[in-house]
Amino acid sequence: MKNINIGILGSGFIVPVFIEMSKQYKQYHLRAIWGRHEEKLLAFKDEVDYHTTDLERVLNDEMIDVIYIALPNALHYEYALKALEHDKHVILEKPFTVYKKDAKKLIDLAKKKELIIFEAITTVHNPTYQRMVKEKEKLGDIKLVCANFSQQSRRYQRFKNGDLTPVFTKKMAGGALLDLNVYNIHFIVGMFGRPKKVQYYPNMEKGIDTSGILMMDYGTFKASSIAGKDCQGDNFVLIEGDQGTLRCNTTASRCGNYTLQINKGKTVNYGKEDDEFCGWKYELKRFIEIYEKNDLEQAQKLNKETLLVAEILEKALASAGLHY
Q: DSSP label at 181?
């Protein structure tokens, strides 16, 4: 077992979650945190060896192995590229990038340099989700899929009052599709692969999709993917086949538990987790496994799904006439 020395870029909402979850594993050592505003970094000074507003100090720190990027969506590509160019492995928050071409550039560069670049997406690493992937074979021919992740943002009222935080600004590529619906897309694509057609129907406020429905046509079945940052809903993923149904009873990000109902058969319930951040422990464990084995093949396999999701997001935005 060896230490994985982490340099954190960003100081927003998700950073404290990453810090707390990383403490579950002895391998993670939080070396540094960077941000533009000194006063925000002071909140983390006891969690890291040092905090700094000097990005080059972090990128050139020879002790740092991995850069964790938790910046607004529009900055993901720029800062991940800087990290790779400085020969650092990268954990990049979802959505990986706004556009597929940028995702491909990062993935290709990581492969060329024999570095790991890893999308921080909780869904695909969760053993409950992986079990659901196998359970779906019991459903017969798939007919309908519906995913809902509606979680009114803590910042929504501020947004309505004119206080535009990054997640609600076009400049920073905010909105429901890239923030919440990306989990639904990973869930569905991880099971069924590339759809034949994609169409996004957003609800727009001040130039941002505060909620919306993504339709994915798989030819033999249709999938609807709903996300809302302006409303609160019953969050689930439901897969309906001609032989039964499979229901994830939580958001696609949590994959805390599910119910399998075979036609005229008994109901099976599996799993109990429903904590908002329960999937993080699996995501961080997966990165350790890849890093310690230097398993570039596994990293690149995950990158293929990341690239497909980036393609779908780009098509969805274009279908709705949204450009960042």
A: I
Please tell me the distance from the alpha carbon of residue 185 to that of residue 223, in angstroms, as a whole number. 10
Q: List, by residue range, all CATH 3.30.360.10 domains of the chain.
A: 124-279+312-319
Pair 47, 16: CB distance under 8 Å? no
Report the C-alpha gap between 143 and 279 in whole angstroms.
28
Percent share of the chain, pLDDT over 90: 95
CA-based end-to-end distance of the chain:
42
- CATH 3.40.50.720 in the chain, residues? 4-121
CA distance 179 to 184: 10
Sign of CA dihedral 179, 184, 190, 193: negative
Q: What share of the chain is helix, strand, coil (3-state, %, to 5)?
A: 40, 25, 35
Please name which of 234, 281, 282, 238 lies closest in space to residue 258, comparing C-alpha atoms: 238
- What CATH number labels 124-279+312-319? 3.30.360.10
Write the single-letter amino acid at 105: K
Q: pLDDT tens digits for 126-159?
A: 999 999 999 999 999 999 999 999 999 999 999 9
Mean pLDDT of successive 10-residue segments in the chain (324 residues)? 92 95 97 96 97 98 98 98 98 97 98 98 96 97 98 94 92 97 98 98 97 98 98 96 98 96 93 85 97 97 98 98 92
Hey, which residues does 142 pair with through a beta bridge?
241
pLDDT digits (tens, 9 = 90+) for 64-85: 999 999 999 999 999 999 999 9
Among 167, 104, 171, residue whose Cα is nearest residue 311 = 104
Task: Enter the CATH code of domain 4-121.
Answer: 3.40.50.720
Task: Of 142, 140, 143, 131, give the one whose Cα is nearest residue 262.
Answer: 140
Q: What pLDDT is recorded for position 82? A: 98
- Residue 300, helix vs strand vs coil: helix
